[in-house]
Write a sequence for this structure.
């Protein structure tokens, strides 16, 4: 697999389209940090790290509106790919949906959202957009 982050986002996207409640993805440290950011920002209901086998996995409970059955995540877009990395400074931070969505960045201070990176005055690799 050449792009594990794209695989992670695709598994989430497919589970949302199929109206699944829980999705299981192979674990890595970067994926765990992205999952924590999604949970903190309210895009997923809960998560659990399972340490079975050599790699382990992440079980993610997806968040749906109880009345309309609409998922909290409308769109997941992979920005930086292995063939073309996208980096940004804190002054040129991308705004996702005029501030309604989030951009997840991998910075020298860890994985964080665009707003946190701007507050910390640190730039980094733009991993994905979520809204």
């Amino acid at each position: 697999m050449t792009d594990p982050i794209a695989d992670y986002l695709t598994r989430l996207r497919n589970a949302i389209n199929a109206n699944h409640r829980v999705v299981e993805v192979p674990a890595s440290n970067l994926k765990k940090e992205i999952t924590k950011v999604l949970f903190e920002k309210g895009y997923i209901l809960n998560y659990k790290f399972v340490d079975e086998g050599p790699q382990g996995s992440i079980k993610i409970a997806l968040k749906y509106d109880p009345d309309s059955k609409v998922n909290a995540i409308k769109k997941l877009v992979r920005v930086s790919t292995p063939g073309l990395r996208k980096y940004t400074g804190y002054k040129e931070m991308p705004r996702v949906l005029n501030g309604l969505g989030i951009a997840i960045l991998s910075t020298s201070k860890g994985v964080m959202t665009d707003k946190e990176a701007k507050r910390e005055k640190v730039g980094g690799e733009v991993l994905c957009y979520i809204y």
In short: The first helix runs from residue 4 to 17.
